[in-house]
Amino acid sequence: MRQFEIYIDGASKGNPGHAGVGVIICQDGEVVKNIASYIGCATNNVAEYTALIYALEEALILKADKLHINTDSELLYRQVKKVYKVKHPNIKVLYQQVVHLLAGFKEVSFKHIPREQNSGADKLATKAIKETLKKQ
Could you give the CA distance from residue 3 to residue 20 in angstroms, rounded to a whole number? Predict the structure, then answer.
């Protein structure tokens, strides 16, 4: 059984503004993949969901069975745990995509972690934005 621990984060400079996602995929304490990607103009919440989607897609490519996903986004965490309803139309579309992707795994757990424990994914998301803005 392929099991991964994943850290996700989205960043937005402006909210909405230039946005990026950061994903760290680990297996047995070792980093398997880092993702830092600029996603254009988006809100922070859209960036958080997009980071989760990137993580789930990559985990499917890596043929994962079991995922443990760490996020510092309280909104995303509470929505995927069905504590909060998803009301915003932009988030609804992303949420439905997440639900669809989750069906590809045997087991997925989510954990809400403090920002300090998610600095790696945060740095990747911020790096994606900075590198894109430098090129412009």
Answer: 26
Residue 136 binned pLDDT confidence (cut-offs 50, 70, 90): confident
Taking residue 72's Cβ as centre, other Cβ atoms within 10 Å add up to 21
Entry pTM = 0.97
pLDDT value for 132: 94
Of the candidates 21, 13, 33, 24, the one whose C-alpha atom is nearest the C-alpha of residue 76 is 21
Cβ-contact 20, 126 below 8 angstroms: yes
Contact 25, 6 (CB under 8 A): yes
Do residues 2 and 36 lie in contact, with contact meaning Cβ atoms separated by under 8 Å? no
C-beta separation of 2 from 63 below 8 A: yes
Q: What range defines the domain where residue 112 resides?
A: 3-130
Structural domain contains residue 22: yes
CATH code for position 73: 3.30.420.10
